[in-house]
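Appendix B. Raw example, untouched.
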Amino acid sequence: MTILGFILFLIVAAVCAGIGEMLVPGAVPGGFFASAVVGIIGAWIGTSLFGSLGPSVAGVPLLPAILGSAIFVLILALISRARHAAV
């Protein structure tokens, strides 16, 4: 993978994470790079659960990445709420 390919991968993953954040209540603090990490993990979760459905951009299957990111953001929001409630 080239540097340009990796940058495109990060951008697509961050956009998928942004869309995933819009689908569920909760937010990912940390800006672009945190969203990119959530998008990469979400793409991995989504691809593991749903396979490579739909179109793919820069090696990221879009539908599973968006769904996986939404699932991951929901999990992070639930953990954050539980942690704040325990304090």
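End of appendix B.
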